[in-house]
Specification:
By secondary structure, the chain is mainly alpha-helical. It has six helices and no strands. Helix 4 crosses helix 5.
Length: about 110
């Protein structure tokens, strides 16, 4: 299938997978968008019915922010962005739909 994909892409001057749509990317240019993006990332498995809570998704960074275990994430930076740990949790629990960036949600 790899050879067919390469051939097809070369013939039609395109790139990427044949059966996957391109992902969206958007430059983070505002504080509000940065906030919404963090919440969106943590709630994506919930939105798509994979889990009931962000903390239930083992591949999420959400639990790393709640933990005090060593991690490569910038925990202090993100928690500071929301004010503190309690505000971080609070924002993830209430009015989630308000914060989700509609232009990034998958169909």
């Amino acid at each position: 299938m790899n050879a067919y994909t390469k051939s097809f892409n070369k013939l039609y001057t395109r790139n990427g997978g044949l059966f996957q749509r391109k992902f969206k990317r958007k430059k983070v240019e505002s504080d509000e968008y940065y906030t919404r993006l963090i919440i969106y990332i943590h709630h994506n498995p919930v939105k798509h019915g994979l889990r009931k809570e962000p903390s239930d998704w083992q591949y999420s960074s959400y639990n790393s922010y709640l933990s005090s275990k060593p991690s490569k994430i910038r925990r202090d930076e993100v928690l500071g962005w929301f004010g503190d740990l309690e505000e971080f949790k609070k924002v993830h629990e209430i009015n989630v739909e308000e914060y989700l960036p509609m232009d990034l949600l998958l169909e």
